[in-house]
Structure formats: structure tokens, C-alpha cells
Task: structure prediction
Amino acid sequence: VVLDIQGTLAAAPSSASSPTVLCVLKAHVISNAMTPKLGVTSPCPTGQLPVYLTASTKLVNRDGIVVALNRIDARDSLVVNGTFINMQFTALKVRDLSLHAYYVTVVGKILYVSPFTHPTYFTLQVQDQSDKVHISTGSVLTIYVQWNTKIFASGGVGNKVTALNPGQVVTVLGIYNRGDSNFSKTLRVRAH
Result:
């Protein structure tokens, strides 16, 4: 049976990687009439639903952007989609409604361009950044280029990282995950 449950994370996970267990308070089923019945033995205190995470469990923020397990914390509001098999609820997808991503503009100098990796990327030394999040001036970010990233360079508009060169100053607009300290999505790169 595949279920969606909603509840509040009781405590931060004991591990920063899968497999691990989340203990969810006030867990209730939101997409099915079935109510999970818990077995006698549970890794969580009474009244908390154990939600098992595997290496294939997808963890996202409220905007649907993938985040690391170490981003979630006690009292976060979760929506979990998973399977209930042999009295064990295993998560397929965990959506943390308490986590936000931020649209951020960063100005920096390109240090390295990697056109042969998948996805392609470039590294950027930050010269100026948005006030929404704290990114230190001088820090180096890896900026991944997705299929829909628009790159504005002297040759026009495209999505090929080969339009950029080391030493070039660019402005990057993207969705920045503060907890992961990186851009989860690069929307636009404009060369100066």
C-alpha cells in the first residue's frame, strides 16, 4: 500500500545519510482511508511513527528541490509518501514544508569551466552577493548548468557552458539552498 502521511519531525535524524529512521509526531494519513497500525517493537517512542529512509528515498523542500538529510530538523513539518509493508513504513519521498529555497543573484569571476562533465559546470569566486543569504565574498561556488539555464554571452543566448571563459565576470541568478550552501538550480548566467 502506498500512503501519504503528514506530521512533525520529533527530533533531528541520528544519521546524516540513509538508511536511517525519522520519528514523526502526530502522523496521520492524508491520501488513503487506511490508518497504519504499528507493531509492538518500534525504534521511536510511543505515539511516534517510524519512517524508514533508504538510499533511494528522495528528500525535497517545500518547493520540490532536492535537499540533503542534514537539512531537516526537529519540529519541521513533513509530508511523506511511502509504502506500508510488513508493519514498516518506508519513505519513497519526504517533503519538508519548513525548508525554503531562495532566488539569489551572485556576481563573481569564473575560475574553471568544465564542458565535458554531465551536468556541465563552472566554478565562481564570489565578488558580490544578494542580501537574502550569507555567501562570503571570496568564497568559491560550483554552478551547474541545466538544460534550461540561459547563458547570455557575447555570442548570444544559449545553454552551453563553452560560451564562458575563466577570468570572465558573470552575474548568476538561481535557486540557492542555504543549508546545502549551493545553487540547486541555475536560471540565468549573464557575462559582463
User: Anything to note?
Assistant: The chain has a mean pLDDT of 84. The two ends are 54 Å apart (CA to CA). The longest strand covers residues 102-114. The CA atoms of residues 106 and 140 lie 11 Å apart.
